[in-house]
Amino acid sequence: MSAPLAPSRLGRALGALGALAVVLATAFVVAPRALAGDFADERDLRDAFRAAFVEYWRSGDRDFSPALESVVDYWFRYHVAKGVIAALLLIVLVALGALLWRAFLRGRGLGAGRNAAFASAGVVVTALAVFSLLAVMANVQGAVAPYASLLPMLTGGDTDSEHAETRARVRQQLAESVSGNGETSPALAVMISDFSLYHVAMAVIATVVAIVLLGLSVVAWKRFPRSADTRARRVLGSFGVLAALSSLASIVVVVANTTTVADPGPALLALFDGGW
Fold first, then answer.
1. Is residue 194 within 8 Å of 150, Cβ to Cβ?
2. What mean pLDDT do residues 138-153 have?
3. Burial of residue 66, with CB atoms counted within 10 A of its CB: 0-12 exposed, 13-18 middle, 19 or more buried
């Protein structure tokens, strides 16, 4: 076990990591759009995607039109930027949380108020780390299948007659494809394929996360009976339960996405009916 940091060094380390976390959290919100370029805001992106999709669908081609290719490439860069920033934030939050929990466990004699502050900050940072992990997962999925990730932008909100007509035709073809009573056009085949890839990506990501979390839970529970300190046992038990429950949640995500991959048509049809 590493030697405890001196109070002054601990304070500097916590301050530096906390400031870095704030910078990265801010960058996660504002930087990806600027780094990816091309579109001013979400409405601009949605309008461009809808117009490009209508053109692509009416062309009957399998390959993306230049306009649609431009939107999909932007969305890929956006998710890469967001995923990288979220991963960096996760690393910083894990390091910050480790320092806070270590300070809490070694904080006997520092006063109840200071120990409570370490514990409260540790809980907040742990929760933020979980959200950062979810952000990494979602953005890796979006980067793997950016076209499918854009499809929800075809639904909801204001729509013009061309878009409404095209969406109705997509839905009709999907319904016929699901029932087995119609042919699958090249554009629809691409959509179904990328939609399936989108869910394959999350199934793989969630499987990896479930294995890692299960391993962390096992480590925590192995250390639990070896610790004679009540405070340490409480922390280890809490992390063991959190990791185990999170692992189970990841397994549910794996099952749901695997089920969609096995038969993507109905889920894609539900998307165009207004669900996801």
1. no
2. 96
3. exposed
